[in-house]
Design a protein that fits this description.
five-stranded antiparallel beta sheet; single chain; alpha+beta; 199 residues; 10 strands; three-stranded mixed beta sheet; 1 helix
């Protein structure tokens, strides 16, 4: 086989692999969006309080953008102490800082801390979840001023995928009566993250 043909075949295979990964990622994001829309549309599941229903304008999303899916270096922080994270209400919630994600986004390097909920440790369904509350330069403009959240599973290795297309608003963005965690100061990204849920 001539070398140019071999190179062409390798390139085609590589492009096909990337296309399959993108398709899987997009389908995963669409599934996330459908589940979120269903939650807010179903009266039995919706967090919207009756007094806020008239003002509720629905859930809206930025266009899906795979540039906002990052593979981060995951560094565990095993010696952290439990702390109380401030919320939008009077009730503070207990978390422990579980690790730090270091990643490149749109050509710049950033870090986000990941937290584990103490209250959810006794829940088999959620005990392996980590919580990423964050604010970015879109907060208060294109997105809710107090920030957004991302949920991820505890990784087995030293990397973790953070999909900002799956960032969502706390209930407090749409209704009153909840104690929504406020992202710690260390979880601010000084760039607009135009992915996930928007106002």
């Amino acid at each position: 086989m001539k070398k140019p043909v071999l190179i062409l075949l390798i390139c085609c295979f590589t492009m096909g692999s990337f296309a399959q990964k993108d398709t899987a990622a997009i389908n995963d994001i669409k599934s996330f969006q459908e589940e979120l829309l269903h939650e807010y549309a179903d009266p039995a599941l919706s967090p919207i309080k009756p007094e806020s229903a008239a003002k509720f304008k629905g859930i809206h999303f930025f266009d899906i953008d795979t540039r906002y899916i990052v593979t981060a270096k995951f560094t565990r922080t095993p010696n952290e102490k439990i702390f109380e994270m401030a919320t939008s209400g009077d009730v503070k919630k207990q978390y422990v800082k579980y690790g730090i994600a270091s990643f490149s986004l749109l050509g710049q390097e950033y870090k986000l801390s990941l937290y584990q909920s103490i209250a959810l440790l006794s829940n088999k369904k959620y005990r392996n979840y980590l919580f990423i509350p964050f604010r970015d330069a879109s907060s208060g403009k294109e997105t809710y001023g107090a920030g957004r959240y991302i949920d991820v599973l505890i990784p087995e290795g030293e990397t973790i995928v953070i999909n900002f297309n799956k960032a969502y608003h706390p209930y407090c963005a749409y209704t009153e009566g909840y104690n929504c965690p406020i992202p710690p100061r260390e979880n601010y990204i000084p760039v607009k993250v135009l992915a996930g849920v928007k106002l």
